[in-house]
């Protein structure tokens, strides 16, 4: 199953490298590091941008309270179909085949007033600047005060850009990922 998932990931990367952003799915080590700063007992709503094949999603679903709403935004139709099939029995899970730029519209649609955490696998280094700006602006606006935006990047090129929206960023490195990645834990200090 894992080999099939990796082949699917590689094929999608070849077809759409700007939106997939990596040639392989994230490791379980990176997934664990991304989850470290989430208070699953208190979280009412968690959003994930760019879940791909669902490595982070699995961790979110394993650790969440059953009443916690999880909303996934996957732009790639192939990955979105895979996620819908893989997690078809999960309650309080919304899988949306759209850009994260439209997150606010879906929150209104589902009557969600605030978000505790946004977990992101988006490749900000390869996304167009205007798209990245819009996503980060909307993310800051939907997060509750002291809510967290947790993302990873393969380089530090976009840290200054992300700091335009989130002044406080706790940075960690995960070497047991291919390639090694930086985890940015950004706090919304409205």
From TrEMBL:
<keyword id="KW-0694">RNA-binding</keyword>
<dbReference type="GO" id="GO:0032259">
    <property type="term" value="P:methylation"/>
</dbReference>
<keyword id="KW-0949">S-adenosyl-L-methionine</keyword>
<keyword id="KW-0489">Methyltransferase</keyword>
<dbReference type="Pfam" id="PF00398">
    <property type="entry name" value="RrnaAD"/>
</dbReference>
<protein>
    <submittedName>
        <fullName>SAM-dependent methyltransferase</fullName>
    </submittedName>
</protein>
<dbReference type="InterPro" id="IPR029063">
    <property type="entry name" value="SAM-dependent_MTases_sf"/>
</dbReference>
<dbReference type="GO" id="GO:0008168">
    <property type="term" value="F:methyltransferase activity"/>
</dbReference>
<keyword id="KW-0808">Transferase</keyword>
<dbReference type="InterPro" id="IPR001737">
    <property type="entry name" value="KsgA/Erm"/>
</dbReference>
């Amino acid at each position: 199953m894992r080999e099939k998932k990796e082949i699917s990931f590689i094929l999608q990367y070849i077809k759409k490298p700007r939106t997939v952003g990596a040639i392989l799915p994230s490791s379980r080590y990176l997934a664990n590091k991304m989850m470290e700063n989430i208070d699953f007992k208190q979280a009412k709503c968690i959003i994930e941008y760019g879940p791909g094949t669902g490595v982070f999603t699995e961790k979110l679903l394993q650790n969440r309270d059953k009443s916690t709403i999880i909303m996934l935004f996957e732009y790639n139709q192939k990955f979105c179909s895979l996620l819908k099939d893989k997690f078809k029995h999960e309650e309080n899970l919304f899988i949306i085949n759209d850009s994260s730029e439209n997150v606010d519209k879906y929150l209104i649609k589902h009557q969600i007033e605030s978000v505790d955490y946004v977990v992101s696998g988006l490749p900000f280094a390869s996304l167009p600047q205007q798209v990245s700006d819009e996503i980060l602006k909307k993310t800051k606006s939907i997060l509750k005060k002291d809510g967290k935006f947790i993302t990873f990047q393969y380089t530090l090129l976009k840290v200054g850009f992300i700091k335009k929206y989130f002044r406080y960023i706790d940075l960690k490195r995960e070497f047991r990922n291919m390639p090694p990645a930086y985890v940015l834990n950004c706090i919304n200090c409205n």
